[in-house]
């Protein structure tokens, strides 16, 4: 009896619900000696900007209890080099590529989307809207429902690909933002991006991270993520992809049960490069043990 | 590069706070290049979530040894591992030091625990001199760590901060003295505190000697995906004349004249 792990994100089918989270998996090839990339459901690439970026000064990361803080600042090769140097490798994989992108103006999101639209063998774009709008006084676009919606409309206008919108948890009411991006045409929502935080060196009394403000990820954020995903699932009709501290199959199942159609593994890739594969195997074991033939029978079965 | 569990064969304090951990693994032993490192997953709860980078100290037959100093919670937890316990290892990682033709003399410049990667070089390369600086005689790692490597006393120049061994003063002063005599056909490999390596790079530049420096940095993943450990490296093709390179993947060894020190 074969198990079905295929899941749908609207018009996109993934061979299984296990994806990798942006910024934790490079462009996939870094892991080719460590795991079978063709076994994954999807790969969300390192956040890509219009121009190549050098990123923030050091130090950029620090370990915390059950997690880590990072402020990398989108060090990446830029969209043109991504298309030329990285895409040819990714497009051959069975795992669907999601081109994670970010920009500092609404217009720039449109330019990026147009470039990505040319790529015929990707799963979709993942729009990171948690970044400052330099034309609007530096307001974080992911925290303003109007700005978030205008980014999504601009991206949709410029690409026919699946548009996944990645939400920040650092908002008063995530339901408002989720609703706004759905109405603006998002095909799916992924969350959570990192929780903003700080860490202080008590000897120097300075920040442990050069950028001062940084993003918390890892197992410590998982309960926060599960709750926010549950709220969003109950607010929108489009599929939701769960992210936040997932490192085991049990973690992934919590997200699927509250209604995520797929999950992304992030920080766990750093300390356990085989985390995605182990999660996949664990999901299969769970299905066998519970006599479940189709993973879709697990999704959204939370009993409240 | 391998990801596997190894069985600790030895994890012994060789000098105060300095430990050697060794294990047997044919694949890793055969794959190692001089100056590479491994990432260890220390299982002591959530306090050490990320892997910890540790220098490969020596490889002899199928035995790989790591030399580390207990400085934080990661190395402290690592020092508690006992013979027979398992540990997840990722590596060998990084680019390592380049291969050098025999007619060149390699000047190894080590500061404190920065001595760690040099044992393998001293074993594999014939033509070397070691310039080794540390704070106090109790931190001298050459005996405790690598007793089976043969060398002549003339090959080694020692300095200590307090004069308890060798010459009192900076190891970089010894290096300069040596190069002042003769700087022909020399190449420098260095590992140690940044302040020392910056001086090594200056001296190398002054005497027109090529230097390769192994940088130490806090790392998130060890394979170049988190971009958490970067160093400013000259690149005339970039708008600012430099770029952030990943210490774990593009390094940890960089040419001294290409590093920009902030």
Q: What would your notes on this structure say?
A:
Chain A is α/β, with parallel strands linked by helices and 304 residues long. Chain A has eight helices and 18 strands. Chain A has one domain: Alpha-Beta Barrel (TIM Barrel). Helices cover 29% and strands 21% of the residues of chain A. Chain B has 262 residues and is an alpha/beta fold. Chain B folds into three domains: 92 residues, Beta Barrel (Elongation Factor Tu (Ef-tu), domain 3), CATH 2.40.30; 118 residues, Nucleotide-binding domain of ferredoxin-NADP reductase (FNR) module (Rossmann fold); 48 residues, Dihydroorotate dehydrogenase B (pyrk subunit), domain 3 (Ribbon). Chain B has six helices and 15 strands. In chain B, the strands form three sheets. Chain B has a seven-stranded mixed β-sheet, with helices on one face. The chains are: A alpha/beta (304), B alpha/beta (262). The interface between A and B is medium-sized, with 35 and 30 residues.
Structural key phrases:
heterodimer, A: alpha/beta, 18 strands, 29% helix, globular, B: alpha/beta, Elongation Factor Tu (Ef-tu), domain 3, Rossmann fold, Dihydroorotate dehydrogenase B (pyrk subunit), domain 3, 7-stranded mixed beta sheet, 6-stranded antiparallel β-barrel, 6 helices
Number of strands of chain A: 18
Q: Determine the CATH topology of chain A.
A: TIM Barrel
Q: Number of domains in the coordinates of chain A? A: 1
What is the percentage of strand-forming residues of chain B? 35-45%
Mean pLDDT of chain A, as a whole number? 96
